[in-house]
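If you are new to this repository, start here. Below is one unmodified record pulled from the training split, so you can see the exact layout before writing a loader.
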Amino acid sequence: MSKFVLFVLVCASLLAEPSATDRYLGYTAELLEQKHLGDEHLLLMIDAAGKGQAVNPIQESEAQVSITHQVAKQAFAYILEEPIELERIAPWATERLSQEARERDQKKKKQEETKLPWKDQKRSGLSVGQSLACAVKADNTVLCWKSDYGDYSSVPADLGPVQSISVGGHCACAVKADGRVFCWGEKRSIKSALPLDLGVVQTVSSEYSTSCALKTDGLVQCWGDNRWRPEEVQPDLGLVRSISGGWFYGCAVKIDGRVQCWGNNNFGGTEVPSDLGIVLSVSVGGFHACAIKADMHLQCWGYNAHAQSTVPPDLGPVHSISLGEHYTCAVKADGFLRCWGDNFKGQSTVPSDLGSVQSVSAGSAYVCAAKTSGLLQCWGDDRFGQLNFPKGLIVAVD
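And here is the target side for that same chain:
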């Protein structure tokens, strides 16, 4: 072969159109840079690749409301007509997830010290427990009401503005504006004091008599009553994206989108289904758990005596979930709330005048939801006066 022919072949190879896989990943990267795609799309790609498929990351619901997503969906469909190297997708998407997380972390660190930290992160403005309920008001201060186990509804005077609140059995923990945790309530529930090495955290989850925090380094640390072992975080848990504490165990969504649980397993709550796959979030109740999968559909497991782990077949996609002792509540894609399972105190009967909601918190046997306006509404068990919240209360929501 002459040098001229060899030169022509080399030039032709350099000018050749990128492979379908390169175009698939390149187009995904471009849409990520433009903020048209997010973590949930990468998780969907990883999950599909694990099942031996290359998926169109644009869902039908997105394409219906956005011109950009309509065009992107058609472009992906064209690319996917050609063979895709599946072995390249998961590693690439996992690295992009880490890159996105690093970029968010760098952005957060560059924020001015005077800027309130909750402006760029999702808040938990509503949390209810067994007999105590708390809400973050529009001015980012905390208001709590009713607890017959002690005067735990009196918010400490030095608490100040907070990012989020989480209520346990008879205690409450808040992430303050500076990212540090402050807890109050029954001493058995919080062991009187926080771990000295806890430091700044992203979020905190309190339930029954144990609290867990997701620290800024992505690691989980728990404290409290360890009779049921939810405090014993598994050493192989590693970095996580979110956490949820239940009565006797805890669950976390790891950095790769997989769920891992630890603690007491008398009712199978820590036995994550093998077919669960990649998830967006997880929530733990009294003895069961549910996760929102990458396609925004719900899957539950654990104790099911009240059908609380049986997802209604017509539920459809959901945005958020909250689990009570023996029942489940989910905010559907259209913003309307649906609950099922134990209904002894009417906790699973959603009020007909509720309308669409932004957030929900399920307690032992009562529920509180923040409407799209932020206005609070509660129903269910009122034995301890849990429904005696200030009328007209507006909850801080994102």
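Two things worth knowing about this chain: Confidence is low (pLDDT under 50) at residues 1-15, 112-122. The two ends are 66 Å apart (CA to CA).
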